[in-house]
């Protein structure tokens, strides 16, 4: 049963894709081909990661500019602030502005090892950029309301803070500083996510909350990423995936079913937008969208137009 048959078009979820920056210009060129193809899948936006400290910042800026102004995808640029020379922050924002990109995911990033006052290349760092909220304030002060600003949310805690209520307090500070949407860390425990959303709402956070979804490609990568992000793997995932762990095709098929079930449950609970961590790969994400029946080929022509971005819809 495809999802679009069960829901009217107004309840069909929209979706978006995250891409990370390859290490080389050649890798970027190869990724453009894939982005071109994935454009045909009708994502509402795509986002491009930022390497903490600003390594490869030129490639992120180039990709944001190409994707926004040449490929024509609504693009969101990630930007971290800790350990970042002020000039890199300035340049990145200016490049985004000049390319017409209006969406920034403002992040702290992870602090560099060693010296806190100068970056690896000796540039001056910005002492006031301690948390993501400091970057949000900076962007608002410099650019007013030009950018929509997203922030990271952690339904299962952050490696430096496991108390969910304390973290929700920090998330509220980010929204109060000017964030207009939230994208979450990946998770597989939907019940926990939905109760976390409710806690956020009860804490007065009213901006759109977008779930971050990591499709399952292989058993090893699934386990590695879940462990790295310190997230709970529900028992039914382990029960169903562990016995077939040696067969990548079976894992991908079963993983698709499990992830599509997650998505259906969230949509049934009122979540309208699904954000996929693609890991720069097409297949696993396409399989989930196919299973959900929300690929463009299933959508009647008159329904194809995307609604406004989640954070540009009136709540
Ligand atoms: P913050 O919200 O600033 O929080 C950082 C830590 O400080 C938390 O432990 C929090 O509890 C604590 N804290 C916050 N405010 C306060 C306060 N007022 N007082 C005391 N403590 C406080 N990393 C990258 O390098 N590049 C990326 O492109 C990238 N993209 C991401 C996308 C998403 C959707 C997510 C969820 C994460 C991403 N990350 C990325 C990882 C992120 O940079 C790390 O998780 C980082 O450790 C925290 O960043 P933050 O923006 O959430 O920080």
UniProtKB/TrEMBL annotation:
Protein's GO biological process: methionine biosynthetic process; tetrahydrofolate interconversion
Protein family per UniProt: Belongs to the methylenetetrahydrofolate reductase family.
Gene behind the chain: MET13
Keywords annotated in UniProt: FAD, Flavoprotein, NADP, Oxidoreductase
Cofactor(s) this protein requires: FAD
Residues of the full protein shown: 5 to 319 of 593
Keyword Oxidoreductase belongs to the record: yes
A single MF term (Gene Ontology): methylenetetrahydrofolate reductase [NAD(P)H] activity
Pathway annotation: One-carbon metabolism; tetrahydrofolate interconversion
Gene Ontology cellular component terms for the protein in this record: cytosol
Protein's recorded name: Methylenetetrahydrofolate reductase (NAD(P)H) MET13
């Amino acid at each position: 049963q495809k999802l679009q048959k069960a829901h009217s078009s107004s309840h069909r979820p929209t979706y978006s894709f995250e891409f990370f920056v390859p290490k080389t210009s050649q890798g970027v060129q190869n990724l453009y081909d894939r982005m071109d193809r994935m454009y045909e899948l009708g994502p509402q936006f795509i986002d491009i990661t930022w390497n903490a400290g600003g390594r490869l910042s030129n490639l992120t800026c180039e990709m944001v500019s190409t994707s926004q102004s040449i490929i024509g995808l609504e693009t969101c640029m990630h930007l971290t602030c800790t350990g970042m020379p002020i000039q890199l922050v300035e340049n990145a924002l200016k490049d985004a502005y000049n390319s017409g990109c209006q969406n920034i995911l403002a992040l702290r990033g992870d602090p560099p090892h060693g010296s806190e006052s100068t970056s690896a290349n000796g540039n001056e760092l910005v002492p006031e950029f301690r948390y993501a909220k400091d970057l949000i304030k900076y962007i608002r002060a410099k650019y007013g309301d030009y950018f929509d600003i997203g922030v990271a949310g952690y339904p299962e805690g952050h490696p430096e803070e496991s108390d969910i209520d304390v973290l929700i307090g920090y998330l509220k500070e980010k929204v109060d500083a000017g964030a207009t949407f939230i994208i979450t860390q990946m998770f597989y425990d939907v019940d926990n996510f939905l109760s976390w959303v409710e806690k956020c709402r009860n804490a007065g956070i009213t901006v759109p909350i977008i779930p971050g979804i990591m499709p399952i490609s292989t058993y090893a990568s699934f386990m590695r990423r879940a462990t790295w992000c310190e997230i709970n793997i529900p028992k039914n995932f382990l029960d169903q995936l562990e016995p077939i762990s040696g067969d990548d095709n079976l894992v991908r098929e079963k993983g698709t079913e499990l992830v599509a079930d997650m998505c259906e449950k969230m949509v049934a609970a009122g979540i309208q937008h699904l954000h996929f961590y693609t890991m720069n790969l097409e297949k696993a994400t396409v399989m989930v969208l196919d299973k959900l029946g929300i690929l463009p080929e299933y959508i009647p022509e008159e329904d194809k137009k995307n609604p406004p971005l989640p954070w540009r819809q009136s709540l």
